[in-house]
Write a structure and sequence with these properties.
The complex is a heterodimer.
Chain A: E1 2-6, H1 15-28, E2 33-37, H2 43-47, H3 57-62, H4 68-71, E3 73-74, E4 80-83, H5 92-98, H6 105-110, E5 119-123, H7 130-138, E6 141-146, H8 150-165, E7 172-180, H9 185-197, E8 205-207, H10 210-213, H11 215-218, H12 222-225, H13 230-248
Helix pairs in contact in A: 1-13
Chain B: E1 6-9, H1 16-24, E2 28-31, E3 35-43, H2 48-51, E4 54-60, E5 64-70, E6 76-82, H3 96-105, E7 111-126, E8 132-144, E9 151-162, H4 167-179, E10 183-184, H5 189-196, H6 218-235, H7 237-242, H8 246-265, H9 272-308, H10 318-340, H11 342-356, H12 372-392, H13 400-419, H14 426-465, H15 470-501, H16 504-514
Helix pairs in contact in B: 6-8, 6-11, 8-9, 8-13, 9-10, 12-13, 12-16, 13-14, 14-15, 14-16
The chains are: A alpha/beta, B alpha+beta.
Chain lengths: ~250, ~525
């Protein structure tokens, strides 16, 4: 079972769209895939038309009173299941603090699912918190959508500092450019310079495209309603890059 | 437990179209476009997957997925993505399924049994968010044999597929389908497809599957037994020629040995002159199939051989492997020539013709007309007594030949008990065969280890002549030493095993079954 987090300290960078589309592509290849919407805003849950409700909420979940398996919902797509968001997730940090080994709770919860799924995608809430630290410790790889601006490069550096400061190693970092607007000078400048400095950067780029925004209208992954769009092929390229990286490192 | 998919058959007078209309009255439905799908089912020649309670399906989609389905629950228990058609378990990607198949298949190869192609239309039942809560798949199914010669249509089916987390909706739809008088299918599509191509799962087994009439004439019964052995032998010829796996040849050879044993051990039922040519013929079959089998055995054991050496020199054994592969290829070619020869074909043909001839009204052989139950009792009793007598006389210092002779008699006894097992109460005869087998395994090991040690030395010499490096011969030398050590151990174990076999309890059991 490969656990992949999709994360950025900053919100609004195309995080949920990435998690939803990549999970869909993995499932379409035949891999048994789970997407866990950890963000109380429940955007991923909304995209799959699932009600944002988890029996017992984060309290029972973290206390181990409900098995993840019991609250999993199938999506409309074969091989793709979802753990929906719940409004109580906004208090997840508090629940985690109460637990033993507070930074390893999510990994503990996910472990029993290791035979049932090939891929697990964690759609993480923005900001650095106990929840995100849990995600860093549970995941094998971290997908990091970056808008090509100097500000978002700073937040990437903040993350690297955090990981180093907390001695979190062995996490495959996979930053990639997201919401790329080729009409913007600054985007082009950042995209020209950064790859030389950051070898871990994935090649694929996700464009700023209305088809991605339309996911909210169609309530499904891009591939579901615009399979031939530029955005759909961008996510395919991204998924290929990710698989390649997980296979052999770089 | 989460609900499992249910496969329904449509009742008379209800077609897929009207089913859809009926369901649409109370449900919001969305129909997806039709998709084509295809599945190939695999099993070994002797149906090991089936016997283990499974179905092994390869679903051909964007990726090919090999799955083990539990026959009782229809549950998919373990799956693997595969790049090429499955054959031996060791060639599959690692995972739970491979481990399971290793246990079930051992040395047997997976063979495609039947193909099912489907046209699938999915009706999705939606909730108020237009989220799918249940999937109903309307299937049109066709089966085809692998050579495409037999094909046809199977009944259409309606699959009710639960979606995780939507159990209540599943239950609701299930009651609706029940009300529409849909019938839950008891047999899987695979079973129907096999019937379609005229195959029955489990129709081959190297075991002796027949019931004997205790009062039937001995000569007629002997023919019946030998005819069943001939069927087994012939069934295994194509697989042996194609060398699909080593077990075809093995089963062919076992059938040959059993036939020879039946000719000599079911005594006095035919005139000796009648059997003479056939005895020679089957002796020849045993002989010409031997070299390939010997090499098969080394190849099957090769990994164990290699692992038994210290790690640093395991690689030194590689030339031995190349030697085996190369010589196996030659031996196999020779074997195929022999099996294609007019001589072989004639033996089989005349033997079958003779077995099918009705037994004479007035036979001259002394036991021909005797009821088989009485002859079986007598023959088993006699051999059992001989085994006991000879076994008791074997001491720690007795030469190895004495154990080899005892092994031969034990084997004859085992074959007789197996030929006639349907004449005796099942649990009792099974238990005694098992007791005998334990001792026979030990005797077999004792002899095989010696033979292997000797032929490894001979092979070593031959390899040297063919220019193998000295390191290979040294590695083989270590192997020979280990085999001989194991042989000493086997010899030490014999006394205990014989004491057990000849225990009072076992002797009483033999008496109860076979009299005396």
């Amino acid at each position: 079972m490969h656990i992949l987090g999709v994360y950025n300290i900053k919100g609004g960078v195309g995080k949920t769209a990435t998690a939803v589309n990549l999970a869909y592509l993995a499932a379409r290849q035949g891999y048994r895939t789970l997407i866990w919407d950890l963000d109380p805003q429940a955007a991923a849950t909304f995209y799959f038309r699932i009600k944002p409700k988890v029996r017992g909420g984060s309290r029972k979940l973290i206390a181990g009173k409900v098995d993840l398996d019991e609250v999993v919902k199938a999506t409309d797509f074969e091989n793709l299941d979802m753990l929906p968001a719940d409004f109580s997730y906004r208090n997840m940090d508090l629940r985690l603090e109460d637990a033993k080994k507070p930074t390893k709770q999510l990994l503990k919860l996910l472990r029993p699912l290791s035979k049932a799924y090939d891929y697990v995608f964690l759609d993480c809430p923005p900001s650095i918190s106990l929840v995100s630290e849990n995600i860093f410790r549970a995941a094998e790889g971290l997908l990091l959508p970056l808008i090509p601006t100097t500000l978002s490069l700073r937040t990437y550096q903040q993350l690297l500092d955090f990981l180093e400061g907390h001695r979190i190693t062995g996490l495959e970092l996979m930053p990639f450019f997201s919401m790329v607007d080729r009409r913007k000078r600054m985007h082009l400048d950042v995209m020209r310079d950064l790859p030389d400095q950051r070898g871990e950067l994935l090649k694929a780029q996700i464009p700023y495209a209305s088809d991605v925004e339309k996911m909210g209208i169609h309530r499904m992954p891009v591939e579901g309603f615009a399979p031939n769009s530029f955005a759909a092929s961008a996510y395919q390229a991204l998924w290929m890059d990710v698989q390649e990286r997980l296979k052999g490192g770089f | 437990m989460a609900p499992q998919p249910i496969s329904y058959l449509l009742p008379e007078g209800l077609d897929l179209k009207s089913l859809k209309e009926q369901l649409a009255e109370t449900n919001t439905l969305h129909e997806d476009g039709a998709v084509e799908a295809s599945q190939t089912f695999y099993d070994s020649f002797d149906w090991r997957v089936w016997q283990a309670g499974g179905e092994l399906v390869c679903e051909q989609n964007q990726i090919n997925r090999l799955c083990w389905i539990d026959r009782k629950t229809s549950e998919y228990q373990a799956c693997l993505d595969i790049q090429q058609a499955p054959d031996f378990h060791e060639n599959l990607p690692q995972g739970e399924l491979r481990d399971q198949l290793a246990r079930v298949l051992e040395m047997r190869v997976l063979l495609p049994q039947v193909k099912i192609s489907q046209k699938l239309r999915t009706l999705r039942v939606l909730d108020d968010e237009e989220k799918t809560v249940v999937r109903i798949v309307l299937q049109e199914n066709r089966f085809a044999s692998l050579d495409g010669k037999k094909s046809g249509e199977l009944d259409g089916r309606v699959m009710l597929n639960p979606l995780k987390g939507y159990d209540k909706d599943f239950d609701r739809l299930r009651s609706q389908l029940d009300e529409l008088k849909l019938i839950a299918a008891e047999q899987s599509l695979y079973e129907y497809a096999l019937i379609g191509i005229g195959t029955k799962p489990g129709d081959y087994s190297s075991k002796l599957n027949y019931r004997l009439d205790p009062d039937a004439r001995s000569d007629a019964t002997a023919k019946k037994i030998m005819l069943s052995l001939l069927d087994t032998l012939e069934t295994n010829i194509p697989g042996t020629k194609a060398n699909l796996d080593s077990e075809f040849l093995h089963d062919l050879r076992v059938a040959t040995r059993r036939t020879r044993s039946a000719m000599s051990q079911i005594k006095g039922v035919f005139e000796p002159s009648e059997l003479e040519t056939f005895k020679q013929g089957f002796g020849w079959i045993g002989q010409v199939t031997g070299p390939t089998r010997d090499l098969d055995v080394y190849l099957l054991q090769y990994d164990d051989y290699r692992a038994s050496l210290p790690e640093a020199i395991q690689g030194d054994l590689d030339p031995f492997h190349s030697f085996l592969v190369e010589h196996h290829k030659q031996a196999q070619q020779t074997l195929v020539k022999k099996l294609n020869s007019p001589h072989f074909r004639k033996i089989i043909k005349t033997w079958r013709a003779w077995l099918k001839e009705p037994v004479p009204k007035k036979p001259t052989a002394p036991n021909a007309q005797r009821p088989i139950a009485s002859l079986a009792d007598q023959r088993i009793r006699k051999l059992h007594n001989k085994v006991l007598k000879d076994g008791r006389s074997i001491k720690a210092e007795s030469p190895a030949e004495r154990l080899h002779d005892l092994r031969k008699d034990c084997k004859k006894l085992r074959y007789l008990m197996e030929f006639f097992q349907s004449l005796y109460p099942k649990p009792e005869i099974r238990q005694l065969i098992k007791e005998l087998k334990t001792m026979l395994d030990n005797l077999g090991e004792f002899q095989d280890l010696q033979v292997q040690a000797e032929s490894l030395e001979a092979i070593g010499k031959q390899m040297m002549e063919e220019g193998a490096p000295a390191s290979a011969l040294m590695a083989m030398g270590i192997l020979v030493g280990q085999l001989l050590e194991m042989q000493v151990q086997a010899r030490e174990d014999f006394a205990g095993l014989f004491t057990r076999f000849s225990s009072n309890e076992n002797q009483q059991a033999f008496k109860r079954l076979f009299g005396g």
